[in-house]
């Protein structure tokens, strides 16, 4: 069986093309996120695998749960469900988000700090990161006391670990080498 990301790629591209044509990237992103959340529910997954549930019934359930706001969203939902690809919705949403970020020149940034950041500190850090990466960032902040001090930032596949824990690990590695 093909990887879900391989299956999701053409669906995400089609959704992106339609969303771009409709100038509704945010609405489509919200719609696909809702569909991914719904598809991740145990009850929905069981219904999707149940041979006695028709695709029309499953589409109806999805429309009630996700509430697509346009005809193109309803058609997309119907196409994915009819093709028995409900399990691909999370991968479709992820791939769509990647297309959206590339188009907008933005990225999601996951910032983990050892201590809670004040609003001004977070704004300053995000501003410096945007300048360094030449991208508009959508930050998500969290706290992890095990970092001891500093912060760790993940943007896509790039990781900037400026934590005390990482510095101690590098020093230990250098001393034992």
User: Could you give the order of the helices and strands?
Assistant: HHHHHHEHEEEH
Report strand %: 5-15%
What is the quaternary state of this protein? Answer: single chain
CATH superfamily placement of the largest domain: N-terminal domain of the delta subunit of the F1F0-ATP synthase
Strand order of the largest sheet: 2-1-3-4
CATH topology of the largest domain: Peroxidase, domain 1
* Extended strand count: 4
Stretches where pLDDT is under 50 for at least 5 consecutive residues are: none
**Share of helical residues:** 55-70%
Write structural notes for this entry.
The protein has 177 residues and is of the alpha+beta class. It is built from eight helices and four strands; from the N terminus they run ααααααβαβββα. Strands 2-1-3-4 form a four-stranded mixed beta sheet. Strand 3 and strand 4 form a beta hairpin. Helix 1 runs antiparallel to helix 2, helix 1 packs across helix 6 and helix 4 packs across helix 5. It is elongated. Keywords: ATP synthesis, Cell membrane, CF(1), Hydrogen ion transport, Ion transport, Membrane, Transport. This is ATP synthase subunit delta. It is a peripheral membrane protein.
